[in-house]
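Worked example 2:
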Amino acid sequence: MRVALLTEGGYPYVSGEGRLWCDRLVRGLEQHEFDVYALSRDERQEALGQLGLPPHVARVRTAPLWNAGTADDSGRWRGRKARRRFAECFAELADVVCRGGSAGAGGAPGAGASSGSGGAPGCGAVGLPESADAAPEDHSEVVADRFANALYGLAELARDEGGLIGALRSEVAARTLESACRAPGALRAARGARVSDLLVAAGLVERALRPLSLDWYDDDGLGAADLCHATSGGPAALSGLLAKHFAGVPLLLTEYGVHLRAHHLATGDMGLSAPARALLASFHGLLAAEVYHQAALITPGNAHARRWQERCGAERGKLRTVHPGMDAGRFAEIGERGYGDSADAASAASAASAASASSSASAHSAAGPDTLLWVGRVEPAKDLISLLHAFAEVRKEQPRARLRIVGAPAEGRGAEDYFAQCRALAAQLFPDEAAGAHSVGDNPVSFEEVGGPEVPELADAYAAGAVVVLSSVVEGFPISLVEAMFCGRATVSTDVGAVVEVIGGTGLVVPPRNPRALAEACVALLRDPERRARLGAAARARALELFTVEQNVAAFRGIYLEIVSHCPVRRDALDEAGGPVPFANPAEASVPGRWAAGPTSSGAESAGVPSWAAQEADVRVQLKGAGV
């Protein structure tokens, strides 16, 4: 089948989120043809280039989210009719967003609009319930209908007029948004919006609606796909939503990190005002509900993401949990070796206690039973401050303990400042220690990066750690924990995100922001090598069963076939009335390989004849020549 893979800020670029699992998925499903439609987040990402693509990726089409351009597309519109259509549709969109829908009560609408694939829906034809006694679910459906009608009306206008980028950032849009914020029934937080707040909100809404202005939806683009697979919510999923609206292409949505949750976290770090945050939260909640309603299936990466999706309006019957697939091969040697038996661990512990630390490099590179390891991107959500304070408590009980922090700061000035703060705190809590008056001091906390002389490969870091620690206060799918499980390492982690689901009883879990509990769990494992070995072996077995690339690819292979099997043929075969003909395309048309052989050895053409039939004909000719 022909699959359109829709991405935002990741694959096929060499940087960004989700690029690795997308690349593994595409390479694992080589029997299908892929078209990649990628939205880039910044100029730097485009400058770094793209990954090497396998031959069954037919084409890649990209569009930037970071560059709105300088041209006003409304100047190309044909007369006042187009401007009036935009004013009506955007006014309807602004009104329902400023009212907040059911999202103003703490959740997203539970249902979306049932929009067909043909014809442009009207804007502003649906109003709020006249009766104050209307059921809440009826109100949610009306709100979702109004949002969907306005969204698809803008999409039809963008297709007819060549884009909406300038119009959505225009003075007309800002004034329309201002009128909606001042109208009765608007969100309380939105009523105090200033002009600067409205301009910021309008710009971010336009960025989220950028797919409306793309030329991806014709019969040679997304309209030619058998299936659209959006690898995240937001703009990437909106592209699939429009492909379904214009061409009836079924949509599969995968969210390993829920886009709406990520938006809520990001707006808090962007320094936006309360009115701007309220407007954007309402808009993204309504968009997520419509995407969830129109998607054929939704594949969260874990139960934590699944709960978010259900609360935001996803139907439970559409949800299929598919854990991310990770490459276990590079950790195989360490995982199979494990910790060794308890006697080896005990002798290693006694040897480590008797030996002095000759140098910082040798101490850091040697694997020891007293080493705690943290791996990841350094940012405030990882709460390394609590980890350092917990390690101070660990040192009181285990003086030989060491802490290795392996990772670089995440992107952004805030992450770099936080990294510097962590290094300063480590130097303050743990001054350099020397074994004697004539030896060089050494700090028990080290900050390292993969690729350096002490950690050439990521697997080397896990090999040197006795216990892997995760101290996050916010976490989606904990990749570092899964890597530690592949390596057969015992873990101590905080109870956030999908941690408990991933660990499943093979590690210790403590409350977040609790250094004392974190320290007690680490000490318990450092003192008990046999328990570490048992937990590590169980963790490796669990990871190999649930989190490998093979299980991920197999799950999506079945989901692709399930979705396409329930969708009628739209192209190639239409009856006299223009409708699809059931079973018009034979099942074997989707099976890879050559079903018709070329010339046979006897020189006869066998075009249209299956290869096995041609081979039988050759055998009969040979037998006849032999006189059999």
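The chain has a mean pLDDT of 81. The radius of gyration is 29 Å.
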